[in-house]
Amino acid sequence: MYEKILNDNYILNLYNKISIYEENEKGWAHHNLQHAINVAEMIELILMGLFYNKVFIENAKIAALLHDIGCINGKENHPAKSELMAKEYFKKKNIKLKYEKEVLSAIKNHSAGFDENNLMTICLIFCDKIDIKKTRVAKEGYNVVGMRQLQYIDDINIFINQDIIKIDFIINDLLNLKELEDFYFTDKVFKAINSFANKINKKPIININNQKWNYNQ
Predict the structure, then answer these.
(1) Number of domains in the chain
(2) I need a labelling partner for 151 at 20 to 30 A (CA). Which of 17, 95, 99, 177 fits?
């Protein structure tokens, strides 16, 4: 079902409109299809590592794929808009999801639901917030102090075992760490990591190029 939705022209057209809108409005960060796919792939990796069943994982990936479709006219109140659009889309396409309630809750609360009990919501928040690699930077973002540092984050690796969840940001030597740490969104990244780690009862380890990131949140 995930692949079917991913290749649905209706969804592709929505993300195309979002990309055009963000370019015209000079948005800093992409909320495009690539971001949605990045988040879905991270969710799959994490939930597989936590041994969730295939149906739950696919439903969580669908939540990731649709979580930003409400950005079609801007970011304001987009989680609620995305939830409504997803609900209408499921009805129109006669899509029945086993975990539809969790999917819609995750979409609705993905921006600020750090204290939610819904594991899918917390996982979506985590993956959404840590997708700060170079593919997130929109054209205007290269001119914004803090945001521009994301262009030097090449990749993000996640490792989970019985005790820990390790997040390793792979960076270019050109990254100005102080500027990145002063960027307001970095607080949200660490908050999402800690919230998710607490939810799954694992110790978070956050590294840059395999060295501990000593960031004081």
Answers:
(1) 1
(2) 17
Would 17 be classed as within a structural domain? Answer: yes
Q: Please tell me the distance from the alpha carbon of residue 86 to that of residue 8, in angstroms, as a whole number.
A: 13
- By CB neighbour count within 10 A (0-12 exposed, 13-18 middle, 19+ buried), where does 111 fall? buried
Q: Is 146 contained in some domain?
A: yes
In this structure, is residue 133 part of a structural domain? Answer: yes
DSSP string covering the chain: -HHHHHT-HHHHHHHHHHHHHHHHTT-SB--SHHHHHHHHHHHHHHHHHTT--HHHHHHHHHHHHHTTGGGBTBSTTHHHHHHHHHHHHHHHTT---TTHHHHHHHHHHTTT-TT---HHHHHHHHHHHH--SGGGB-GGGGGSTTGGGGGGEEEEEEEE-SSEEEEEEEE-TT--HHHHHHSHHHHHHHHHHHHHHHHTT-EEEEEETTEE-----
- pTM of the entire predicted model: 0.94
pLDDT digits (tens, 9 = 90+) for 142-162: 999 999 999 999 999 999 999
Contact 31, 75 (CB under 8 A): yes
Q: Mean pLDDT per 10-residue run, the chain (217 residues)?
A: 96 95 90 96 96 97 97 90 97 97 96 88 96 95 97 96 96 96 96 95 96 86
- Residue 163 lies inside a defined structural domain of this protein: no
